[in-house]
Design a protein that fits this description.
Elements lengths: L7 E5 L4 H12 L3 E6 L2 H14 L2 E6 L5 H15 L4 E4 L16 H28 L2 E5 L12 H20 L6 E6 L7 H4 L21 H13 L4 E3 L2 H12 L1 H14 L2
Parallel strand pairs: 1-2, 1-4, 2-3, 4-5, 5-6, 6-7
Helix pairs in contact: 1-2, 1-7, 3-4, 4-5, 8-9
The protein binds NADP nicotinamide-adenine-dinucleotide phosphate.
């Protein structure tokens, strides 16, 4: 009934949005959580809620773009719980700007550093311990990891890079008992767009998405935890995403138009 009871889970990006909700729902199952992100105060608030719901939780403020901090995240988890059963690479940042209008290239570096290298660093340090527990690696990609999306060039590149890394790692891990689950959400209502890089490299401040008309973080977390529990290879979370995969095989230009329309409509 509760596959994550006393399961030791490192969860990055736990201070907000999808990560916060995954933490709360895993706490409902009695998971033993390590919550990571940069904002220590938000993490403490999430940890408090998790304890009230029945989970254990350790807060480790972490910038996943810094290798030494990812190692410290793993070390602190081992010191607290003695093992690692699950790593959820969820921390991420985004952009909302056309490539030809970008005034600086720093956001492209930062997107790779956080979205791609952040997951790589945490996985590298956690992997020997996950092999001992025949554990789970979970990666929150995006439909922008499946196909190109206008205004998301750097974000889509970082999410495609994750797919290359983790689809390869999955094959290397055959026979070890460690599984890799890739999660591909569609639009989910969260803070990510407000924080996303605009053309000037600054946060947008406002969301161009109709946040009240897209998937909730609660639903996204439910689907993600279900896929984690089943050790699914991947979880494409909407009908649009599922259909898009098949359409892309025979008529990729149709998927381009679906992506353009989604950005124009903001949902
Ligand atoms: N919302 C969507 O529509 C959507 C769709 C598809 C995929 N996703 C993916 O879902 C994941 C979660 O996004 P969200 O929508 O929940 O966004 P969010 O509300 O902005 O949360 C992002 C989380 O990542 C953390 N983070 C950002 N930079 C970090 C860094 N350098 N080191 C450690 N943590 C960092 C943030 O915490 P701090 O700021 O405290 O560090 C926050 O906890 C991301 O990987 C995103 O790409 C989201």
């Amino acid at each position: 009934m509760h596959p994550f009871r006393e399961n030791v889970v490192i969860l990055t990006g736990a201070s907000s949005g999808i990560g916060r909700e995954i933490a709360l729902q895993l706490a409902d199952q009695g998971a033993w959580l390590t919550l990571a992100a940069r904002d220590a105060q938000c993490l403490e608030e999430v940890a408090g809620e998790c304890r009230q719901r029945g989970g254990r939780s350790l807060v480790v403020p972490t910038d996943v773009s810094v290798l030494a901090q990812c190692q410290a995240l793993v070390d602190r988890t081992l010191a607290e719980y003695g093992r690692i059963d699950t790593l959820v690479n969820n921390a991420g940042i985004s952009m909302w700007a056309r490539f030809d209008e970008m005034q600086a290239l720093e956001p492209f570096h930062r997107l790779m550093q956080v979205n791609y290298f952040g997951s790589l660093y945490c996985t590298y340090h956690a992997l020997p311990h996950l092999k001992r527990t025949r554990g789970r690696i979970v990666v929150i990609s995006s439909l922008a990891g499946k196909t190109g999306v206008p205004t998301r060039s750097g974000y889509a590149a970082s999410k495609h890079a994750l797919v290359g890394l983790f689809d390869s790692l999955r094959v290397e891990l055959l026979g070890t008992g460690v599984t890799v689950t890739m999660v591909y959400p569609d639009f989910v209502a969260s803070e990510i767009r407000k924080r996303a890089y605009g053309t000037d490299g600054q946060p947008l401040g406002d969301s161009p998405v109709q946040e009240d008309r897209v998937m909730t973080t609660e639903r996204c977390a439910q689907l993600t935890i279900r896929a984690m529990a089943k050790r699914q290879r991947e979880d494409v979370q909407t009908l649009r995403g599922k259909a898009g995969q098949w359409i892309k095989l025979i008529a990729p230009a149709v998927v381009d138009r679906i992506a353009l329309r989604a950005i124009q409509r903001g949902k």
